[in-house]
Amino acid sequence: MPAETTGAPNTGAPVNTAAPAQDGSKTAPPPANSTAPKAEGEKLTPAQLKAKAKAEKAARRAQVKEARAAAPVPSPVQEKGAVTDGKGGKGKGKPDGQQTQGKGGHSQGRRPSFSGRRPSGAPIEKDVRSTIPDAFSHIPMAKRIPTSQAHKDVHPAVLAVGQQMATFALSDSISRLQATLLAFRKVIESYETPKGNSLSRHFVPHVLNPQIEYLTECRPMCFAMGNAIRLLKGKINKFDINTGDEEAKEGLLEWIDFLINERINLAEYAIARNAALLINEGDTLLTYGRHRLVEKTFLEAKKDGKSFEVTVIDDPFERSGQDLAKVLRQAGIPVLYSPNLGGLRPKVAAATNVFLGGEAIFANGSLHAPSGTADVAMSAANAGVKVIVLCETINFDRDRVSVDSLTYNEIDPERNSAESFRLLFDNTHDKYITGVVTEFESGGGNSPAQAILALLRKQEDPLID
């Protein structure tokens, strides 16, 4: 009979094909009345086939044991192709060119580690969070999730949005919110309620939640997205169980269009108009980085015929202020550009007003904004300069408060190394903020940061009626 391959390393050691007995000793040739194979051409009984397979298996085990005893410990290069069964138990024979796994989960031919360290072997992908100290391990970080690992129910439109968020092609809260709502719109359009279910009971747990989980895995959800999703779920839950699919879907699509139009497009226009009223002829204005509301406010004031100057303090990492300076100069506005926070105090002291954009505002009036915003706001407050924050109410958080930058934040995945890492946002206390401009006119659209909860009670809930 031809010799069978066992998957053991070819070490040149002699191989004994005699099957060992249960006590480990070599066995004699089987007796004549055994179930060994008969002459070629004779058909074997099931019992004989079973005994034959058992004997061959015992022979293979003997070969592996002898090969292990005679073979040297393989190098990491030899171990690169090692295969384990993933169960931590005794491995079975594999085809030629592969290792077998022994007891305890260690590959046969590989020296087990008693020091607690992983044995050398195939290169392992580095965990980007492995260098973050334990004190900051609670802070999330955006990561790119391969589409092949996404839940099978995630819609292609949501897959695309998740990839754009993970790579920061969609970075600010409003652009992420708008892209998410448009993707959810396509999810609703393609949805069909299974037989025996209703949209109000089936859609959220089985369709919407997988989309949300995928987006959250790609990048932590911003406050605007969280508010919009809460409102969307409230709208869905208000549907009667007997509401028809087409009627419910049409209602949801209209509601999404209304939310985008009212809370994003019209809100941007209203905030820019309200904030432009705070700019006077000959003012020297200062801002940090580039925020869409601040940019639109300056352009709106210029359109009104006002003459003023703008100082742009740029984020030294993002460099978004360069683009803002170019846009303002093209509009005929004199601009002083500073590439970093150096010399911040005299620049702030020379300003009339400081305009800042926010990612979110907490219930205690604290501002959640790109890193560096707090430095500008504190310098302005110390110099007696007004600090005006522009923010849509969809970014307000009515339930949570924040007093530091470590409770709600993100780690910059592009600037994370063994030596240091960078936080994307910081927290500005309400005492450094003169007023908040929103799309709802309250005192000319300029409300104190501490009045955020009162402002929220006047609106928002009608969206889910």
From TrEMBL:
Its main location: cytoplasm. GO terms for molecular function: translation initiation factor activity. Pfam families: IF-2B (PF01008). One of its GO terms (cellular component) is cytosol. Residues 53-68 have a biased composition (Basic and acidic residues). This is Translation initiation factor eIF2B subunit delta. It comes from the Eukaryota. Belongs to the eIF-2B alpha/beta/delta subunits family. Keywords: Cytoplasm, Initiation factor, Protein biosynthesis.
